[in-house]
Amino acid sequence: MFQGTFTALVTPFRNDEIDEAAFATLIESQIEGGVTGIVPVGTTGESPTLDHAEHNRVIELAVQFAKHRCTVIAGTGSNSTKEAVTLTVDAEKAGADGVLLVAPYYNKPSQEGLFRHFKAIADATRLPVVLYSIPGRCGIEIGVETVCRLADKCANVIAIKEAGGSVERVNQLRQAVPEEFIILSGDDSLTLPFMASGAAGVISVASNIVPAEVSRMVRAFLDGDTASAQAIHRRLYPLFKDLFIEPNPVPIKQALAWAGRMTPEVRLPLCEMSDGNARRLRATLEALQIIPS
Fold first, then answer.
1. Is the peptide bond before 211 cis (omega within 30 degrees of 0)?
2. How far apart are the first and last CA of the chain?
3. Shortest CA distance to 169 belongs to which of 143, 188, 191?
4. How far apart are the C-alpha atoms of 265 and 257, rounded to whole Å?
5. For residue 165, what pLDDT band results from cuts at 50, 70 and 90?
6. Is 217's pLDDT higher than 90?
7. Is the dihedral of CA 45, 248, 142, 147 positive or negative?
8. Three-class secondary structure of residue 62 per DSSP
9. What top-level class would CATH report for the domain 4-228?
10. Which phi and psi angles does 134 have, rounded to 5°?
11. Number of other residues whose CB lies within 10 A of the CB of residue 223
12. Could you give the residue ranges of the DSSP H alpha helices within the chain?
């Protein structure tokens, strides 16, 4: 259920409103591409600039459009424990299969505070919980010992999205956590190195536009066909890098717009790509034949 390729979905906008038709089309493309699951309203889904009603609506739509054909892991994290509990309870009512909980950002709690935060949320739901450590955005890391404590004390804390950019950290986690605890890569370009160290898949940005190829790469590695997985990785590596030349999800939304899937709209304080970076991204997409020249 939590092994394979999960797409960190963008939230399409049109005239500053959620574009529900484009969202339905996006989710259909993910299922056709063979992803294991979808992750609405994470970082890529611009959760910081969605109000609570919009946040809940995107999760409801994801469940509705998925129709039990793939796993839905709803982003419900916050730097307020009370808010995260509310969002998590709402996601469970909406029919999500699990929740993704980012580390609290800005207020920088201690590791004890992190433990209590995640435990309070886990205690409020029956859903499986995926922790999300991304120190580059949050300013703190969920410590290995804290992950182990949570896995021990909370039966539904079953996985972590690891986006710290360190293979060593994945090795440390794999040595410390129970064998059944799942590690997922949070960086497309590091998916194979992380899987070689014990990760079981990826929560991917790139799969918004190339779901079939990312899914094949991950599946090949899990099946022991490392040569095929490496070939796909090498082909897609320029895309993996160029999707982060400006803040996520600006480049992936622009790529999807060029592919005719949605508008490139993002909400302030995010804004459109610079002309130079847009040219670079478009050249990469054209070279990979993802969009026509």
1. no
2. 38
3. 143
4. 9
5. confident
6. yes
7. positive
8. helix
9. alpha beta
10. -140, 75
11. 10
12. 20-32, 52-66, 81-94, 111-123, 135-138, 144-153, 167-176, 191-196, 211-222, 226-242, 250-258, 275-287
Q: Is residue 106 helix, strand or coil?
A: coil
Distance CA 18, CA 51 (A): 11
Question: Which sequence positions are flagged as catalytic?
Answer: 132, 161
11 contacts 46 by C-beta, under 8 angstroms: yes
| Measured distance CA(11)–CA(80) in Å, rounded | 22
60-99, pLDDT tens digit by residue? 999 999 999 999 999 999 999 999 999 999 999 999 999 9
Contact 218, 4 (CB under 8 A): yes
**φ, ψ of residue 204 in degrees (nearest 5):** -110, 145
Token pair recorded at residue 12: 């399409």
Amino acid identity at 31: I
Helix (H, G, I), strand (E, B) or coil at 4: strand
CA distance 150 to 115: 7
**3-class DSSP assignment, residue 131:** strand
Q: Cα separation of 85 and 122, whole Å?
A: 8
Place of tokens 């796909």: 232
How many Å apart are CA 86 and CA 76, to the nearest integer?
Answer: 9
- Report CA-CA distances (Å) from 275 to 255, 265, 269, 281: 14, 16, 18, 10
Alpha-carbon separation of residue 140 from 60, 78, 111, 196 (angstroms): 30, 14, 9, 25
Helix count and strand count (H, E) for the chain: 12, 10
Place of tokens 């997985």: 229
Domain ranges within the chain, ordered by starting residue: 4-228
pLDDT for residue 1 is more than 80: no
